[in-house]
Structures are given as C-alpha cells and as structure tokens.
C-alpha cells in the first residue's frame, strides 16, 4: 500500500520518551519509536519532527515556582535539544540519516534553523528534527510544530498523544467520554478541546493545515496514518 502523505511533521511530547517513569528518557521507548520512524522513512515519506521537553524541564511549571517565565521557557527549549539529540542517535544507529536543526544556535551539537536548509535535507531523504521550539519564550512546542510545518510545506501535522484521538472529556478520568472522528478548527477552539494550544490551532486554521491526532505509542499507528487509514481524529476546515 502506498502513502497518502508525501511530507509530514510529527509532533511528540517529551513525556512520550519517558515511558512509565514519567521523566527522563527511557532507552527502550526511544528504540521502539526510532524503529517505527525508520519504517516510515523506508516508505518514502519526508519526515520532520518537533519534540517537547516536558520529560526534562517544563518552563510554565517552573515559572509557578518562582523562576522568571522567559528564563524558564529558554530552559525548556534546551531540554528539547537533549531529546532531539537522543532521538537522532537512536535513528542513526538504525541507519536513518538525521539532522537536528535548533532555533537557538549551538553549532557544536546542532545546525542552526534555516528554512531552506531544512527543506533541502528533506528532499535529500533525511529525517529533520526541529529543536528549541521557535527560539522565543511564551510560545509552546505545539506552536513551533504549526509554524515549522507551514514553513517546510508539510501536508499535515501528526499530533502524537497517549489516547487514540480527541475526546469530549479526558478518557482516562471520564470513561463515557466520546471520541470524535473529525472536528473543525472552530469546534476545537469553542469547546476548548485539548488538541493543541489556541495559538497553534489558530495558526493552522488561518493556513488550512490539517491536524491528525492519534495514539503514536501504539505500534504501527504512525505507518497507518501515513497510509491514510482511518485512525484518530482529523482536525480541519470542514466542508467548503
């Protein structure tokens, strides 16, 4: 079976790399995830990633404990670089060429983010990992994912979560919550559904970029999403 999408941006949380421990990086989770990305790469899909840093440091939580918000956000951006380097190492051990591009320049460990360089890497069949968010405080990695997806001309954002789509309430605490197969951007904003933050959703809405929300921790789901199989929840503009 072929692929529905030629170029995709995958957004994953830092917590996804932590496994059951809830913090740090679980080597087994990292290897499993890298193998799935290897399969996506072998399908011919051009793949970019944005990774959060919440498994190491969360700026918003730190600001509640007395750390200046901007300083906390910069610390969180550096945490995403750690995660990006870990994933790059896991992918390259599997023979997948990978580049880390950081919005905060640190040339000893990552390339500086330049849009044309990023698209060139994708054209050359390299997996690109965007680190350090947008490089600015007060913006989440969700917003960074939306921004980078549009800059590189991605056809869709894959938002990886721990559940299999968007629900009317938290399915982990509300057993009778219902799952949506499709939503419009306005639905998400009006109902304040936890898909991405409002800045990221608005950015996607203004530019018509669809978001597919699904459980990326379930083996095979990323490949299914690339093929266009019906999984998760699709957030889009709706009927024209």
Written overview of the protein:
This protein has helices at 15-18, 27-42, 59-63, 69-93, 115-123, 141-151, 185-191, 198-207, 221-227, and strands at 7-12, 46-51, 98-102, 111-112, 127-131, 156-161, 166-167, 179-180, 182-184, 211-215, 233-236. The protein is α/β, with parallel strands linked by helices. The chain has a 9-stranded mixed sheet, sandwiched between helices. It has a two-stranded antiparallel ribbon with strand order 7-8. Helix 6 (141-151) packs parallel to helix 8.
How many structural domains can be distinguished in the coordinates? 1
Q: Which structural class matches the secondary elements?
A: alpha/beta
Major beta-sheet overview:
9 strands, mixed
Note the gap between the termini: 29 Å
Overall average pLDDT? 92
Approximate strand percentage: 15-25%
The best one-word shape is globular
Question: Quick one: CATH superfamily?
Answer: Acetylglutamate kinase-like
Unreliably modeled segments: none
Helix content: 25-40%
Supply the number of helical segments.
9
Strand order of the largest sheet: 4-3-5-2-1-6-10-11-9
Q: State Rg.
A: 17 Å
CATH level-3 fold name: Carbamate kinase
* Total beta-strand segments: 11
Order of helices and strands: EHHEHHEEHEHEEEEHHEHE
């Amino acid at each position: 079976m072929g692929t529905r999408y030629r170029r995709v941006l995958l957004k994953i949380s830092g917590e996804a790399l932590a496994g059951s421990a809830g913090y740090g990086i679980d080597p087994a989770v990292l290897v499993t995830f890298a193998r799935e990305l290897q399969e996506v790469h072998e399908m011919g899909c051009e793949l970019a990633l944005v990774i959060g840093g919440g498994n190491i440091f969360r700026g918003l939580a730190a600001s509640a404990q007395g750390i200046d918000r901007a300083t906390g956000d910069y610390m969180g951006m550096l945490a995403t670089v750690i995660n990006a380097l870990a994933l790059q190492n896991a992918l390259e051990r599997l023979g997948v060429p990978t580049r880390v591009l950081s919005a905060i320049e640190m040339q000893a460990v990552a390339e500086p983010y330049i849009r044309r360089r990023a698209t060139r890497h994708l054209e050359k069949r390299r997996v690109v990992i965007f680190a350090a968010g947008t490089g600015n405080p007060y913006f989440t990695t969700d917003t960074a994912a939306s921004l980078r997806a549009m800059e590189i001309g991605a056809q869709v954002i894959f938002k990886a979560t721990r559940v299999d789509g968007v629900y009317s309430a938290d399915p982990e605490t509300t057993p009778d919550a219902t799952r949506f197969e499709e939503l419009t951007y306005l639905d998400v904003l009006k109902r304040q559904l936890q898909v991405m933050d409002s800045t990221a959703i608005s950015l996607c809405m203004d530019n018509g970029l669809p978001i597919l929300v699904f459980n990326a921790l379930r083996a095979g789901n990323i490949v299914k999403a690339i093929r266009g199989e019906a999984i998760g929840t699709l957030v889009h503009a709706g009927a024209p």
